[in-house]
Amino acid sequence: MEVINALGRRKAAVARVYLSEGKGKITVNNRDLENFFPTKSLQYVVNQPLELVEAAGKFDVKINIYGGGIKGQAEAIRLGISRALIEVNPEHRDSLKKAGFLTRDPRVVERKKPGQPKARKKFQFSKR
What we know:
By secondary structure, this protein is α+β, with helices and mostly antiparallel strands. Helix content is 34%, strand content 23%.
């Protein structure tokens, strides 16, 4: 099996995922997953699609990620891994879709408007 690549995005984070046969090693920006994401909850988010299709120890995953915060990066990686797993085996599509791992979350930060301190907040109104 050759290397399969997929792209995952969330907010401002962009993840390039390279999936190949192996022993289950996950590398993010040339660092171990546990080193890059120290919290267990973010490690769980990254591993969700692999555990759902029972492929946790079958593939080595190499990830290049930039932009966004750590939560957005973890969810971008989850989308990228899900898309790569579908390229490996299209039968996984139904279970991944049902779990919501194939939907690109469209929510992004709203831009700041001029004459306001933030995107929606207004300066205090004074009648006199």
